[in-house]
Every structure is written in C-alpha cells, then in structure tokens.
Amino acid sequence: MDKKLSTYYTNKIEGWKTYSDVPIRFESNMDTSLTVFYLPERKNKASDQASDQASDQASDQAILEFCKEPKSLQELMEYVGMKHRTYFRKNILKPLLDKELLEPTIPGKPTSPKQKYRTKKHK
C-alpha cells in the first residue's frame, strides 16, 4: 500500500475513534477496499424485548392517564416528546385506538382540526 493510502486509512481510523469507541478496520488492495465496523453484541435479546414491551406498556398507561380529559393530537405529541406526526399517528395513536383504549371525540372525522382523543371508559 502506498504512503498516501496508508495515511488516508490512518486518518479515517483516528477520526472514527474521535466519535465512537466501536472498533473499525480498513482493508485494501489495488482493486478493492473494505471497511468493517464491529458492533457490540447484544447479550440477552429476550430480556431487551421484554424491557421494550414493558416500556411501551408504561408509555401507553401514561397516555391513557393523560387523556382522561380530551386532548388534541398536538397535546399528545408534546406530552410524549414527539415531533413527527406521521410516526406518532401510526405507531403510538393507532394501536391505542385499535385496542379501543382511546377514542376520538369526533369519530367520523379523524383528521378534523378539532379532533381530540380521550381514554375510553369500559363498562
């Protein structure tokens, strides 16, 4: 490997170390180059999944508690600290509506600017 290429890779590796402690390796010959990033292995995927599920359930409970009084979509998003409306609707709001845990105040008009959501009272 020539001196310029060697210096290039050394600089890239040092630059990477500035931003991350994840090991990196560069390989090169005259025709190709390869960059390998070594990501840390997750020890217990089942435990991580259970933790994620518990966290989701806690978030759902917090939203349901918050929505005892009707809240707008914007109020809900601010409450959970989200800014991406589409993501929030699809991944947070829709599952709660599908499970009938939340209900819209204007059922026939899901995109109405006056639409609010409240915790559904089960009998």
From TrEMBL:
Superkingdom of origin organism: Bacteria
Span of domain Filamentation induced by cAMP protein Fic-like C-terminal: 66-118
Pfam family, one: Fic-like_C
Residues covered by region (Disordered): 103-123
Protein name listed in UniProt: Filamentation induced by cAMP protein Fic-like C-terminal domain-containing protein
Organism: Flexistipes sinusarabici
